[in-house]
């Protein structure tokens, strides 16, 4: 029901591991780790965004394209602070997911807790399995000629 849209995601992830000081920009955002699974009649998408303020997260759906963008800003420091080590990435993060036509994009819900953004996308009623009742056939009359 979900499709990956970024064929270079693994390459970006490897680059980020090799060069952790690389931060995402609005024109070239970093990827964010994601899990996606089905839970009953709902698809759940969980995205890791540690240290990102709730107000710095933007979620959009256009047709069947779900886009999540977030920005993690560096912590404000005084003039007398000298950075010894900086491994925590900051900058812009983005993820796009193509949602199947069988999902109800009008009723997506989002929760953010402990640095994890959880999106719940229900399966559309028209896509759920349903029973088809069989009607009684019309009386057949034979026509003799």
Automatic annotation (TrEMBL):
Q: Which PROSITE patterns match?
A: SHSP
Q: Which organism is it from?
A: Streptomyces violaceorubidus
Q: How is this protein named in the record?
A: Hsp20/alpha crystallin family protein
Q: Which residues form the SHSP domain?
A: 25-137
Query: Which top-rank group of organisms is this from?
Result: Bacteria
Please state which protein family the record places this protein in.
Answer: Belongs to the small heat shock protein (HSP20) family.
């Amino acid at each position: 029901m979900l499709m990956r849209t970024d064929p270079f995601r693994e390459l970006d992830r490897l680059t980020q591991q090799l060069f952790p000081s690389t931060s995402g920009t609005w024109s070239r955002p970093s990827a964010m780790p994601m899990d996606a699974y089905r839970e009953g009649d709902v698809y759940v998408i969980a995205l890791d965004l540690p240290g990102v303020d709730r107000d710095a997260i933007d979620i959009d759906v256009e047709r069947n394209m779900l886009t999540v963008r977030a920005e993690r800003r560096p912590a404000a420091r005084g003039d007398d602070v000298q950075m010894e080590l900086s491994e925590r990435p900051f900058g812009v993060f983005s993820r796009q997911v193509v949602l199947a036509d069988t999902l109800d994009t009008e009723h997506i819900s989002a929760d953010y807790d402990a640095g994890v953004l959880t999106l719940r996308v229900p399966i559309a009623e028209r896509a759920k399995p349903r029973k088809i009742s069989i009607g009684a056939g019309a009386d057949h009359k034979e026509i003799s000629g």
